[in-house]
Structure formats: C-alpha cells, structure tokens
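Figure 3 (text version): structure tokens given as input.
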C-alpha cells in the first residue's frame, strides 16, 4: 500500500502505485495516476488527467496538470504525461492540454526541472532535458531531447527547439532553433555549437566538425549568391550520408507551424 500522509487529500479514482509516497498536504485529483517509487514531498497539487511515471520526485509547491491558461478554458480532462525518473523542483507549474487536443502536455523521461519553471499547455518536452530556475516554456512549444535551458530563459509559444541545444540564461526565443547549437541573447540568435554538451554526450571531434561544416554551408556561406532554399538543397547533396546534417536539414525544412528560424549571427 502506498505511503500516504494523513493530511494528504486523495480524491476517489486516483491511482497511486503501492510503492509511491505522498507527503503532507498534497492534493491528488480523481483522474491522476502516480507510478512506482514516485515521491510527492509535500504541498504538491496534481489535477486533471495527469499520469506521472515511476521513480519521479516532486518537490513542495509544484502544481501539475492544472487548467490551461487560455481564455475560456474549463476543468475538462486536461491531460499531462510526465516520464519516468523526472525530478520537478519547488513551485514548478505544468499546465494540462487544452480542450480537444489529441496530445497531452508531455514532459519526457529523466528530466530535471528547477525551481519556479513553467511549462505551458500542449507543450511537448523530450527526454533528458534540464531547465534551470525561472525558465518559461509557452504553449504548444516543441522541445527535443537533451535540451538544456539557462535560468530565466524563455521559449515563445509554438516554437520548436532541436536536439542537444543549449539555451543561455536570459535568452528569449522568438524563432525556432536548429539542433546542436547554443542560442543566446534577448533577440535570439546562434553562432556556435553546443560543443561542451555534445562532447559530454559522446560526440566525437569529427562529429562536431561535420556539424559545423553543414551549418557554415547553409547559414554562413562564403558565396552568398544562392538563395537560402538553394543552399539547403545543395547541402542535401553534399552531406547526404551524414546523419547529423540530415537531422539539421530535416529541422530546417519541416513546416513547424510556420515559425521562423532563429538566425545565425556571424
């Protein structure tokens, strides 16, 4: 039987694994599922149709699965999914999906979300992401695996961020960010790889060289006569056997809800 503190409020219908722990003054709604070995420390509020995986730890003041912050929203089956092994620190808020959406708000496996961060409705966050204190992620944003965000950085609603991106502290993203780079500035741009993060994740020096080469060819060519779409097509031919190039070019050519790309700054 789950270890549930006597002061916790557990609504009928909630499904809590037998090895989970629910601390003092937590509130767990009727459509919530909590996985094995997950710990709710104290004063945690979980509502909506929220599913939390196993081996997670939720710190005091976190509010998960709440009504989306959009005009006219109601307490319907706002869905949220949080992956295994994720740590959510104090006062983090994660809003459930908006009405009629096929996908829940999603936070992946083994993420670390620090104090006061906010993840908006319908956002899709990948695995192994780290968000520092006061990070803001707008509704419908799509953030890929292994993205690290510095303190007080923000992602505009509907923006896309590729894999292995590092977003510097205080950066405000108003465009989509291709994989592998560092985004920085209050008017977001990139001009370098996330070399430290990529190296820590096992990328070789030759991999970094290949990534730099394709970025140079598309975003900072020595010959500026070709249009951007022509440079992308040329890069497809030049780097057809390089999986990292393919990943970048696929991101560039994806419709992404019509969002602009975060620009390269020379």
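Below: residues designed for each position.
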């Amino acid at each position: 039987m789950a270890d549930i503190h006597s002061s916790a409020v557990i609504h009928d219908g909630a499904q809590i694994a037998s090895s989970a722990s629910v601390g003092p003054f937590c509130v767990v709604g009727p459509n919530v599922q909590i996985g094995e070995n997950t710990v709710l420390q104290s004063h945690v509020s979980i509502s909506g149709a929220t599913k939390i995986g196993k081996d997670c730890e939720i710190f005091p003041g976190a509010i998960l699965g709440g009504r989306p912050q959009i005009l006219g929203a109601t307490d319907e089956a706002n869905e949220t999914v949080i992956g295994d092994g994720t740590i959510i620190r104090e006062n983090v808020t994660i809003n459930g999906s908006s009405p009629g959406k096929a996908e829940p708000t999603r936070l992946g496996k083994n993420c670390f979300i620090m104090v006061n961060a906010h993840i908006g409705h319908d956002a899709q966050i990948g695995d192994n992401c780290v968000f520092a204190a006061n990070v803001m992620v707008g509704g419908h944003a799509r953030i890929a695996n292994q993205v690290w965000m510095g303190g007080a950085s923000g992602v505009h609603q509907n923006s896309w961020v590729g894999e292995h991106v590092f977003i510097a502290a205080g950066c405000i993203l108003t465009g989509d960010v291709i994989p592998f780079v560092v985004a920085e500035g209050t008017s977001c741009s990139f001009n370098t790889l996330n070399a430290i993060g990529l190296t820590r994740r096992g990328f070789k020096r030759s991999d970094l060289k290949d990534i730099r080469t394709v970025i140079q060819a598309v975003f900072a060519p020595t010959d500026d006569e070709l249009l951007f779409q022509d440079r992308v097509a040329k890069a497809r031919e030049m780097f057809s056997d390089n999986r990292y190039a393919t990943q970048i070019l696929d991101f560039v050519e994806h419709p992404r809800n019509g969002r602009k790309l975060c620009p390269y700054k020379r």
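The chain is about 15% helix and 25% strand.
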